[in-house]
Amino acid sequence: MPLSTAATTGAPATASTASPESSATSSEDSSFPDTSSKVAAYWLIASAVSVFGIVVWGGLTRLTESGLSITEWKPVTGAMPPRNEEDWEAEFTKYRASPEYARLNPNMTLEEFKKIYFMEWSHRLWGRFIGMSFVIPAIYFVARRRVTKRVAWNLVGIAGLIGFQGFIGWWMVASGLRDELFSPGAQPPRVSQYRLTAHLATAFVCYSWMLLTGLSILRDLRVRADPAAAAKVASTLSLPALRPFRFAVMALTALVFTTVLSGALVAGLDAGLIYNEFPMMGNGITPPRAELWDAHYSRKPDHSDLWWRNMLENPSLVQLDHRILATTTFCAVMALFAFSRTGRAHALLPRNVKKGATGVVHLVLMQATLGICTLIYMVPTHLAATHQAGSLALLTGVLVLGHRLRMPKSTMRLIQKYAAKGAHQPNLGSRVTPKA
């Protein structure tokens, strides 16, 4: 087989033979490269870690009842905290005009207000930091063509989602500042559980999008480094015998995300403060039927909304739903682990997939323990915040597992491209001395 000119002459390697750590290779029909920069991958993963942190901090903000301490949304000027006593008095005056102060904290002092104010202010400042630290580098990577066209569109989508998340955050806070909450007969001043769930769901989607995009870049770079090994893995993952396992992981991902959303409803309704035992709920496994399907939550004369209103607004049924979903998730993870260790799946699954399944088992055991402890100890702040972090950790484990099982079409094209180049140039990036 003839050797390429670069290989026989010892000329510097072309873009197609550059190492994975170098800048990505330009494709023939586009100004965008065919693989993205490794720096972009690390930046995306670091951004995901920052989102993970703000999710935990947001949980602490809610648990310390700090979320309604700032009653205005000022995306730019709100980045600066009060700087003197006059500014603090002005902010405290605004808070004293809110339903939460009037009904729950009428004896709060200025010093106590400063504590909850800084919790909410730091949460909002962190959100601004995430936005700036993502948008500015994203513009650079796209403008300098350091990412593929597909990744560039992902960056645009993530940036838009971050901006939308800021709007949802204020939309959520505004639900706890409504004038009707001043009424003594109204529910205690708190944000809408629906808006809280939307806010948390958007954060989880943003995190997942960042993480998976970063991991996909690293996978493509490994393809460039060793297309033969990548082709072998792709061949294994395409086997029909692994389709049921791949489908099971997809279903588990959806189940984990649904369980997270039900947990947000529990948090929004303070439903974790009732029935603080496990597995019992009062005198039985479930509360009485009349309590679960209470007509009090129906808003239509014919009670046609009775079932879904109770499922989303009745604290007793919301907690029961979360218990059922959490238990189902636990059992599903254990079943998936058994699936990965038996039959043809055990023989065919790559080693990193098996390790991923084991990791998910560890995460779900930790999360189940945290959930039960949070419940029986009546939602202490440190346990509740750790439980929320555990939900995102469990989702991370399932996402990584699913990522290891996929070889998208774009990656398959890279495998074919670099495998073909390797057929003509076996030692990529090296010098080969022709035989005499």
Keywords:
single chain, 436 residues, mainly alpha, 2 domains, 16 helices, disordered N terminus, COX15/CtaA_fam, metal-binding, heme biosynthesis, transmembrane
Question: How would you describe the overall organization of this protein?
Answer:
The chain has helices spanning 5-9, 38-63, 85-96, 99-103, 110-143, 149-174, 193-225, 227-237, 243-268, 289-292, 306-313, 315-340, 343-348, 351-376, 381-404, 409-424. With 436 residues, it is mainly alpha-helical. The protein folds into 2 domains: 24-192, no CATH class; 239-298 and 306-406, no CATH class.
The general outline is globular
Biggest beta-sheet profile: none
The fraction of residues assigned to DSSP E strands is: under 5%
| Number of E-type strands | 0
Quaternary assembly:
single chain
What would you call the structural class? mainly alpha
Number of spatially distinct domains: 2
Q: Which series of helices and strands comes N to C? A: HHHHHHHHHHHHHHHH
Radius of gyration, CA atoms, in whole angstroms: 26 Å
Q: Quick check: average pLDDT?
A: 89
State the end-to-end distance.
15 Å
Give the low-confidence spans. 1-29, 424-436
Fraction in helix: 55-70%
Instruction: Give me the number of helical elements.
Output: 16
